[in-house]
Hints:
Layout lengths: L2 E6 L9 H17 L4 E5 L5 H15 L2 H7 L34 E9 L2 E5 L6 E2 L9 E6 L8 E3 L12 E5 L2 H7 L3 E11 L2 H8 L5 E4 L7 H5 L9 E5 L11 H17 L1
Parallel strand pairs: 1-2, 1-10, 2-8, 9-10, 9-11
Antiparallel strand pairs: 3-4, 3-6, 4-5, 6-7
Amino acid sequence: MKISVAIPTSALQDESLKIDKTRKISVLARACAIFKIETIYVYQEGNNGSDGSLMSMILKYLETPQFLRRRLFQKMNDLKFAGVLHPLKIPSHVTPSDAKKIVVGDIREGIIVNGKGKKWVDVGINQLLQFYGKTPTGKRVTIQFKEGYPKLSIKEIDNSGSEVYWGYEVKEKSNLFSLLSEWKGNVIITSRKGKTASKEQLEKYTKTDEPLLVVFGSPEKGVHEIIGGRMNKVQNAKSLNFFQNQATETVRLEEALLGTLAILNAQNSS
């Protein structure tokens, strides 16, 4: 089951300080990595454009292997509090820097660089490897070692079909309705007004190869309020309540994300 999530830019409005916003985004990123989210869609909701750019930037930063961040991210105000971020430690990040430990078949993330009239790839070891693929300079690339140490020959690969979780993508959307109109697959709208997320309700989504988009509302508006009268135009969508009998007035996004994905994961594993 391939799951993507849609979260609003207004999710950060409860936090007044940038350091607290940064911490919250870190929790969201960790939750998505734990449950192998394919794509995080950040949709515009409310008048908080700066929060949207902050969220997208930090989500992308956290998904990037540490050894590539210096090349891919310049010093900027959005990353002022990067020191409080918790690392994801997904397979694409946990890689040895010792070239002698590399064996045939190892997969790495890298970045293409120029040097001496040739293209090279930096994969986090103490040497650059010559690159013959089509990926342009300055872009990330996934490579596999055809030979281990000391030859270290490589090839570019598409890792999207791998059973090993390699990280999430981050995509920005101008509004939620356009995302739902374009989505090809099933949609779960998380809502306090929805039907109980029972085993029977969830089997439709966990026992199929159809991609699933799980949509979360904002602190002040549910998804139905955000979409308004166009809700009946959304295809293959069902509203489900994952927090029946909640004692709190509201469920914060970071709580809803962890709880909802944990329930879906448990159902998928049963």
